[in-house]
Amino acid sequence: MRLLAPDSVADVYAITCELGLTKIGVAADARERCRALQVGSPVLLELAGCYHFRSSRDAYAIAADVKRQLADRHERGSWYRATPQEVRHAIGNRSARQAPREAAEARQAASVVEAQAKRERAEGVRVRRRSRAQVRREKLRALARLLASGSTRRAAARALGVDERTIRRWTKLPGFAAELEKARERHERELERALQRERKRRERNAWRRFARRNPELWAEARNPDRRPELRPEPKPVPDPGPKRGKLLPPIHFQ
Question: Which residue would you say has higher pLDDT here, 196 or 105?
Fold first, then answer.
């Protein structure tokens, strides 16, 4: 059965028959609902109760509470083995009066949970899209590095675990040419730095061999003051001339 609009008026009805059964339900017009049910019913139906509500949400909440109260008398579908007075008493008790408020709180809690679940699903979709896009960007950068280093498309496809047609499709993307140019510049800089490191390593090894084979020359090379051509000339020492002894007193002989 089609549900009514949430803000539309509705009736909670109780339709009885000669078999001692009562049908409890919600409809926009209880009398029209009774006439529609009478068309396919072999027994006479009678509208025993009609309770009007301004909102179909309240009507559905009260009808659900009444069915819960009469659950032990349920026969089939919406038919219950109860009298119209029992239905009227179930509708008028405290549980039925609180049913709309409890239903509104339940709907609010369900809407909060649904909104949270929707945000989580959207966040999951964004994370998956972001992760896929990030993986694709990383693969494009890796392809640019491989091609810049001189690898062929077949070797790059084997290294990245994709088909060669995928490599051809990636190379035709709008931003791949700029990424390839950057990769080539980085590769050239890395080669230049590698050559400089190799040159310095060879120089260090040459100096080490030179130090092992010629320790004296190595010391002079490390300390220029020890080189013979750079040593300061010694200052000339003045000649003091012949040394004179002390005058002894004259000796007298007898």
Answer: 196
Helix, strand, or coil here: 164?
helix
Helices (H), 23-152: 30-39, 56-69, 84-92, 94-148
**Position 151 confidence tier, pLDDT thresholds 50, 70, 90:** confident
Burial of 105 (0-12, 13-18, 19+ CB in 10 A): exposed
> In this structure, which amino acid lies at residue 151?
S
| pTM (2 d.p.) | 0.48
Sign of CA dihedral 207, 211, 214, 219: positive
| pLDDT of res. 44 | 92
58/107: higher pLDDT? 58
How many whole angstroms separate alpha carbon 60 and alpha carbon 47? 18
Find the distance separating the first CA and the last CA of the chain, reported in whole Å. 172
Q: Check residue 3 and give left, alpha or beta (phi > 0: left; psi -120 to 50: alpha).
A: beta
